């Protein structure tokens, strides 16, 4: 256990509620344990859904190994700054639950906007084939597959470890569509395949900003974060090649950083084959999702 961990071993028998109250009220300097954080960790340790746990708060006596495990996980979360989702191994996203680990970015609520937008276009325009490039955990592609009329989906990523997680998530979410997983550096291993729609949430943080990120975010894979010097490396690289992989009138939908819309518009304007359609804002009113039409053939 690292020397800065200050939660020691508890040796008494506690109910769930007592352990929560103990940690919430414990007089630990600068630590703000919330009931919810402890509930999430406890439900993961006991492998019980949170709503079921709430019914057992005052009756279920915790075993010593369960208390130790809760304490260890709280230490990881608060002192080692490991994201809660890596500790529980799960993240809810859109209508699905996803397995996550340190090999994938934790899917963010903001990305649900991209999923909603893609579903609208797929259903309105009867689109059949989709590529989710830079798929990570597979969250975007799998949620779109499960909630739209898309028929055929490819999930691609450069990281084999991330794709193992994506495969697990395809099974976990019982995807009924024709779905495959391809390890590829951008389009390198995608042959001559063409798609009606390409969605992507590529790495988009400026390399120089990585060192200033929140400690929890820094635990996510650098390969999922680093978008090059200007943050926009991947938008240009993807658009440059996407022309060869889009069916006529196809679409590209990107997630972008809050300050990247103008840079992306200027990249789009370099190519005659693409037309900027719109930008959708996130809940905090930041530019977040950009829709681009391919007007070549
Ligand atoms: C920001 S994460 C997005 C993950 C997921 N789509 C999501 O929204 O939660 C970016 C992903 O791009 C992948 N990636 C980085 N460079 C790549 C490349 N050259 N080719 C393909 N994928 C790449 C990373 O492995 C990572 O999984």
Helix content: 25-40%
What order do the strands of the largest sheet run in, or round the barrel if closed? 5-4-3-6-7-9-8
Going by helix content, strand content and strand pairing, the class is alpha/beta
Oligomer: single chain
Count of helical stretches: 11
Low-confidence stretches: 1-5
So what's the overall shape? elongated
CATH topological fold name of the largest domain: Rossmann fold
Give structural notes.
It is a single chain. The protein is an alpha/beta fold and 297 residues long. Helix content is 35%, strand content 19%. It contains eleven helices and nine strands. The protein has helices spanning 16-25, 35-45, 50-55, 64-78, 84-88, 112-124, 139-147, 160-172, 222-225, 233-242, 261-269; strands spanning 90-93, 96-99, 129-133, 152-157, 178-183, 195-200, 246-255, 274-281, 287-294. Strands 5-4-3-6-7-9-8 form a seven-stranded mixed β-sheet, with helices on both faces. Helix 7 (139-147) links the parallel strand 3 (129-133) and strand 4 (152-157). Helix 1 (16-25) packs across helix 2 (35-45). Bound molecules: S-adenosylmethionine. Residues 104-105, 107, 111, 134-137, 139-140, 157-159, 162, 185-186, 201-203, 223-224 line the site of S-adenosylmethionine.
């Amino acid at each position: 256990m690292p020397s800065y961990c200050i939660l020691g071993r508890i040796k008494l028998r506690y109910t769930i509620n007592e352990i929560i109250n103990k940690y919430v009220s414990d007089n630990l300097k600068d630590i703000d344990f919330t009931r919810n954080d402890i509930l999430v960790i406890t439900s993961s340790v006991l492998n019980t859904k949170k709503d079921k746990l709430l019914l057992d708060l005052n009756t279920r006596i915790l075993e010593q190994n369960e208390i130790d495990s809760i304490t260890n996980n709280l230490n990881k979360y608060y002192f080692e700054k490991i994201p809660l989702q890596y500790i529980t191994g799960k993240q809810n996203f859109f209508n699905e639950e996803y397995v996550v680990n340190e090999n994938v970015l934790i899917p963010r609520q903001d990305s649900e906007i991209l999923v909603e937008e893609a579903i609208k276009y797929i259903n309105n325009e009867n689109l059949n084939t989709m590529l989710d490039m830079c798929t990570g955990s597979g969250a975007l592609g799998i949620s779109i597959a499960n909630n739209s009329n898309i028929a055929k989906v490819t999930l691609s990523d450069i990281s084999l470890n991330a794709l193992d997680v994506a495969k697990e998530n395809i099974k976990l979410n019982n995807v009924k569509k024709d779905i495959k997983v391809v390890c590829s550096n951008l389009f390198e291993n995608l042959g001559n395949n063409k798609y009606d729609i390409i969605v992507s949430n590529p790495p988009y943080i400026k390399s120089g900003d990585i060192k200033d990120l929140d400690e929890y975010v820094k635990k996510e894979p650098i390969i999922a974060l680093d978008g090059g010097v200007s943050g926009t490396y991947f938008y240009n690289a993807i658009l440059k090649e996407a022309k060869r992989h889009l069916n006529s009138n196809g679409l590209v939908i990107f997630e972008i950083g809050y300050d990247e819309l103008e840079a992306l518009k200027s990249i789009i304007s370099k190519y005659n084959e693409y037309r900027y359609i719109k930008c959708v804002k996130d809940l905090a009113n930041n530019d977040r999702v950009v829709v681009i039409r391919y007007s070549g053939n």
